[in-house]
Amino acid sequence: SQQGEEDPQALSIQEGENATMNCSYKTSINNLQWYRQNSGRGLVHLILIRSNEREKHSGRLRVTLDTSKKSSSLLITASRAADTASYFCATLYQAGTALIFGKGTTLSVSS
Amino acid sequence: GAVVSQHPSRVICKSGTSVKIECRSLDFQATTMFWYRQFPKQSLMLMATSNEGSKATYEQGVEKDKFLINHASLTLSTLTVTSAHPEDSSFYICSASPRAGGPGEQFFGPGTRLTVL
């Protein structure tokens, strides 16, 4: 399976704290994307980072990509209760056309 | 923005019946559509990739005779779960890639929750 791994599987923090999630993948990628999914709902696209980029920001989100380690991280700063959701990385492999999703991290932010 | 719809959003059916799920790109033409399945507390697993006017490509372990995919137009793909069984109960999500989109640009539908009794 090409599916990547994410860690941690679950993360519980207090409002205002930062949350960091990591994603590892297996082969060369074209780009890597992060998505959020609230319980039982559809996906929300958060950010895309290309293979030639190392870091990207969007509001309270910061994504890094290390192609030598085949890993990416998503940092959510100053978390809010509304950030409670599952977060998935999805990779577009160079030889593929579809996004392949990681196993996801379930984030719980308590107020 | 690009919108993808799915219908129905929820469906409950009896074991042995067939269920059809529609995926539509509302404001763009999609050369490629993808179908994913998500079991509770798990990630999305790619089931198949379909290109308009050609047969779908199924991922390993996905039965093509059980999960029939038709991509008859640039805005519509359908997934038919034939002879559904309780183990087919899942959240089915489609996505569509715009004709002029960038690499990996996929717009996701809101999903269809299938419950087989």
Average pLDDT confidence of chain A is 92
The helix/strand order of chain A is EEEEEEEEEEE
Helix percentage range of chain B: under 10%
- How much strand of chain A? over 45%
Distance separating the two termini of chain A:
38 Å
Number of strands of chain A: 11
What distinguishing features does this structure have?
heterodimer, A: 11 strands, 0% helix, 59% strand, globular, B: mainly beta, seven-stranded mixed β-sheet, four-stranded antiparallel β-sheet, 54% strand
Task: Summarize, please.
Chain A has strands at residues 5-7, 10-14, 19-24, 29-37, 43-50, 55-58, 61-66, 71-76, 85-93, 99-101, 105-110. By secondary structure, chain A is mainly beta.
Q: Can you tell me about this structure?
A:
The complex is a heterodimer of chains A (111) and B (117). Chain A has 111 residues and is mainly β. Chain A is built from no helices and eleven strands. Chain A has strands spanning 5-7, 10-14, 19-24, 29-37, 43-50, 55-58, 61-66, 71-76, 85-93, 99-101, 105-110. In chain A, strand 4 (29-37) and strand 5 (43-50) form a beta hairpin. The model of chain A has no long low-confidence stretch (mean pLDDT 92). Helices cover 0% and strands 54% of the residues of chain B. Chain B is built from no helices and eleven strands. In chain B, the strands form two sheets. In chain B, strands 2, 4, 5, 6, 9, 10 and 11 form a seven-stranded mixed beta sheet that branches. Chain B starts with a strand and ends with a strand. The model of chain B has no long low-confidence stretch (mean pLDDT 94). At the A-B interface, strand 4, strand 5, strand 9 and strand 10 of A face strand 4, strand 5 and strand 9 of B.
